Amino acid sequence: MKSHNKSTGATSNANETALGLLVTNAGVLSLIQDAGRYGAFNLGLTNGGPADPLAFYWANKLCGNALNTTSIEISLGGLELLAQVNCVIAVTGAAMPLTINGHKKLLWRSYLIKAGDKINLGYTSQGVRCYLAVAGGFDIKPSFGSTATVCRESVGGINGDKIVTDDLLPCQAIDKSRSQLKLLMLAEHGQPKYSNEVVLRTILSYQHQSFSAIGKRLFFSCQYHVSKHWDRMGYRLQGRAIKPALDGILSEGICYGAVQLPADGQPIILLNDRQTIGGYPKIGAVISQDCAKLSQLRQGDSVRFEPISMSQADNLFHLNISRLKQTQLISCN
Amino acid sequence: MSTQINDHIHLEVAGENALMLYFVDESRSSSIIKADKVTDDISSNVQHAAKLIRQHLSADIIDLIPSYASILVMFNLLETDHHHLRNKLKKLLRQCGGTKNKQGRLIELPVYYSLTSGMDLERIAKHAKLTVEQVIALHQNHEYRVYAIGFAPGFAYLGEVEQRIATPRLATPRLKVPKGAVAIADRQTAVYPAQSPGGWNIIGLCPTDMFNAQAMPTMPVEVGDRVRFVGIDKQEYLDLGGVLSNLVNDSED
Q1: How far is A122 from chain B (nearest CA, A)?
Q2: Are residues A90 and A185 in the same domain?
Q3: Is residue A331 part of a domain?
């Protein structure tokens, strides 16, 4: 791990007078994320952003935030925070046990936190990633237009690195006199369910014509398992090998969800922190909603691919947006 | 799903919010071209089309990834859909193509070539049946073009090196390639912007920052530029801010 000197570096957010949430335990992998970095592909910078944008969306929504507000993505768990200010937080995503001052609390709802409160997240048994948002967002200086952390690039977050113990995550204090604080929750039927099996709806694209008809039939009918290589860059799967007729192509742009098949025939699905260009043949691309579900899987979990057309994918995208718009949060006051 | 825009360009689907433009020259029907066959004319067409898209379709576009002979066009699904964008691209790019190679800016990058800073020089020389000095001369006496930027921040794919010194990637990539390493893979060459794993053959060190988040501009080169490498000695390398402490020795790592 690289050193974490807050007194140097132009991207440092250190401010002697800033207050916020103090990290007393960083957990397995906790990252500062906003909606992602766009418009910097010409420099070779990837998108970053939340691996599960749906859970990220709800965390911010529950805090009354705009959609591109800086929050924390917690993978597997273990994050512990000490509040220095009064604020409102919400945690959404995988079933990580949340406690405030040792008292068990629910995910998918916002809570009022007082200065001195301890926020602890345990480890998840189902799903991988959670999002912790704070009303008004964390005050992190953007780099290349975004606060999203991509560790591989040393860009975003605090000094381009994951959150480490003793980091201070600055945020706005809520005025104590405001008794009208709106605390919200998402009804249980509106909460995404996480399982160990996911269907990945996939648009045939890129070099799909270099795969045989039988190869494609097998690809869409076999079950694959998540291998030990799964991270924000990509998920490597194990299962029936699907070999392309090409061993490589001229390097070209890789989109979110692209399914690469290198010479060993084992699919790799490329996610938020993917390399921007590459030269392995690709059979298609998984739609964004299903990439979010994939990012909640871990080693040994299983996936299946299902072919869909570009127009079906378009419909699913807009159906999802309108469903989100129609979902009303419930007031807890 | 494929749309022919003109003799040079066709359009394919990539993903939910991404279309792919493939560029060929008149003689070729296939979009899949090997790295050693890219022509500067194709690259010029790619740059021209990318510029047109940025100028005219910015409201619909999230970002573009131009590469050797393709452009990945990522679009905003809340603003447009693939049908509309396909038609707009078709209209916009119908006249595009057939542009002759335009001369980009010429950028000079200093390189400290030596057996210590370029741990693979000897192997390349042996492979090419040349002397180390000849390998260095062949690498220097050539103008390269920036075909693509990607893989990692500031990593510029330059082509094409003289056929005689083209060398395949290492069978097992190194875990650490030092920042500034000037390296060859097949007919491509590049400067590693930061220490990273990598399998390219190292022939020297360049003291110029290829990516500096605090600098303006962030990178010394952009796609379409021309690059020439200029040999410098160890003292000049150090004077220009180069460091020698990160050198890996050619061990098993």
Answers
A1: 33
A2: yes
A3: no
pLDDT per residue as tens digits for the range A205-247:
999 999 999 999 999 999 999 999 999 999 999 999 998 888 7
Residues of chain A with C-beta less than 8 angstroms from the C-beta of B152: 44, 152-153, 275
* pTM, two decimal places: 0.89
Report, in angstroms and rounded to the nearest whole number, the Rg of chain B calculated over CA atoms: 20
Estimate to the nearest angstrom the gap between the alpha carbon of A175 and the chain centroid.
30
In a domain, B207, yes or no: yes
Residue of B12, B67, B154 lying closest to A43 (CB–CB): B154
- Position A38, amino acid: Y
Q: Which residues form the domain of B39?
A: 2-93
A40 and A182 share one domain: yes
Same structural domain, A122 and A215:
no
Largest CA distance in chain B: 59
CB of B75 closer than 8 Å to CB of B62: yes
Look up residue A225 and give its two tokens.
């398992």
Structure tokens that stand for B24 in this block: 């060929």
**Domain contains A54:** yes
Residues of chain B with C-beta less than 8 angstroms from the C-beta of A255:
14-15, 17-18, 72, 74
| Min distance A182 CA to chain B CA atoms (Å) | 29
Q: Quick one: A233 and A130 in the same domain?
A: no
CA distances from B102 to B40, B44, B99 (A): 8, 6, 8
> ipTM score of the complex?
0.90
Query: Do residue B149 and residue A43 have CB atoms under 8 angstroms apart?
Result: yes
pLDDT digits (tens, 9 = 90+) for A17-62: 789 999 999 999 999 999 999 999 989 999 999 999 999 999 999 9
| B10 lies in the same domain as B42 | yes
Number of domains in chain B: 2
Partner-chain residue, chosen from A253, A287, A321, that has the shortest CB–CB distance to B16: A287
Give the one of B15, B148, B211 whose C-beta lies nearest to A251's C-beta.
Answer: B148
The answer to whether residue B19 is domain-embedded is: yes
Residue from B163, B168, B246 nearest B207 by CA: B246
Is A72 found in the same domain as A208?
A: no
